[in-house]
Structure formats: C-alpha cells, structure tokens
Amino acid sequence: MASGEFTVSDLRRILHEAAGESDGADVGAGTLDTDFTELGYDSLARLETGSRIEREFGIKLEDTALLEAQTPRVLIAAVNTQLTVAGAS
User: Fold this and answer.
1) Which residues form the Carrier domain (predicted)?
2) Whole-angstrom distance between the N-terminal and C-terminal Cα of the chain?
3) What is the CATH number of domain 8-88?
C-alpha cells in the first residue's frame, strides 16, 4: 500500500496503466483543469483508474465521486482527502 500524497505523477502513471499508454492525452501541470473527456478518458477508464488507486493507496472512493471528478485536479484532491481521512484513523 502506498502512502503520503497522491500526485499528478501518480495519476498519470495509473491512467496509463488503466487506459493504455497510447490512449488519452498526457496529464500534467498544464492539463490539471482540463476535462477528462477532452483528454480522451471516458467514464470506464476513470472507473478503472479509481479501482487501481483504491488498491494501491488502500482507500475507498465512491463511484459517484469518481464520475463527478471531471478534471485531474478534482480527482487528485478527492484522493488526497481520502488519504487524510485514512491516515487519521
């Protein structure tokens, strides 16, 4: 289980593992506020990404929270919120 802060690098790596290296645009500092659909990631890719995040970081993300996180910045914040809650337990 990973711990600490969930970063844009973590998200980029997990998105590529979930959707494939050639699918979707690269996520980085310049695309944090770009909608996932504009980046080429559909809801299935985001759900798979969420599952991988949960396994790797030992947290639980609600499906609705995953689908409502329309941009990388919002998803990173949601993951970090859960990491904070898990760390406080």
Assistant:
1) 5-83
2) 15
3) 1.10.1200.10
In the chain, what are the helix, strand and coil shares in percent, each to the nearest 5? 65, 0, 35
Q: What are residue 12's phi and psi, to 5 degrees? A: -60, -50
* Kind and range of the H or E run holding 81: helix 72-88
Given a contact cutoff of 8 angstroms between Cβ atoms, the answer to whether 79 and 6 are in contact is: yes
40-87 confidence digits (pLDDT tens): 988 888 889 999 999 999 999 987 888 889 999 999 999 999 998 887
Average pLDDT over every residue of 5-30:
84
Is 49 within 8 Å of 18 (Cβ atoms)?
A: yes
Q: Of the candidates 79, 56, 68, 60, which has an alpha carbon nearest to the alpha carbon of residue 6? A: 79
For the chain, domain boundaries: 8-88
Residue 46 has which token pair?
């985001």
